[in-house]
UniProtKB/TrEMBL annotation:
It comes from the Eukaryota. Residues 13-231 form the Glycosyl transferase CAP10 domain. It comes from Rhododendron simsii. Pfam families: Glyco_transf_90 (PF05686). This is Glycosyl transferase CAP10 domain-containing protein.
Amino acid sequence: MPEFCQRWASKSVAFVVQVVTKLADSGEDLTLQFTWAEINIKPWESILKEIREGNKRIRWMEREPYAYWKGNPFVAETRKNLLTCNVSEKQDWNARLFVQDWILESQQGYQQSGLASQCTYRYKIYIEGWAWSVSEKYILACDSETLIVKPKFYDFFIRSLQPVHHYWPIRDDDKCRSLKFAVHWGNNHKQKAQAIGRAASDFIQEDLKMDYVYDYMFHLLNEYANLLNFKPEIPEGAVEFCSETMVCNAKGLEKKFMMESLAKGPSITNPCTLPPPYEPHVLGVFLRRKTNSIKQVEEWERRYWESLDKKQ
């Protein structure tokens, strides 16, 4: 059974409502985007295979020993702030940050934005934009250690991941110093850093297969339907919208990716079975472990900077 399927069962039915309705104050968000034709991101199964092959091109130890990020910084202040951590003549925060111009990239045939060719650094940064970013699962799929800037939104599988096992937590209020320490720690604990990257990549490659994503969608919609206190009815004058209708109006990459990701038929197996919700104390142990891991990283980071200050 996929791990996120087990973790999902630990949440109450109320959590499902929060996810579906995207309650901003709780930070919950349902995100199920697995292709993006506008910027040449292929369907999930295809890009997963490409990233898996891309991981093999450069051994982890031979990759650039810095934190890498490439994206559009102009969609959110937090990303603009991240750019202040870029290397300069005066300071090196162990980060190598690049601005992605999608208009120029589309004109040049997406030669510099291939996701499978970006696993060339030991560390990759994930940071949200104006909301959740579709880049998260692609970054985690690469077996470089993922440095996740403290998020406000959560993809449906992210709550299964543990800090210092699947990723390294980065402070949102002190990004540069936090990134510098993360890279310093990783370069001084190479085997552990490599193991963190591999654990996340294995999770994405094995537990986030498209069949399991469909399982999640099935259970989510069924649980949500169980909460309805009315019987849905098709409105008068409604027009049926099917896969053929969607494809007919699509062109170019959009149509190509739709056809490539089209389910050829029903599954030959039943969806994964959700176990009963966790007992409160079991869920509490899981959440405390996550909280304690983040606090441990923050303590290591504090000691690191204190030791540097004493040397000056």
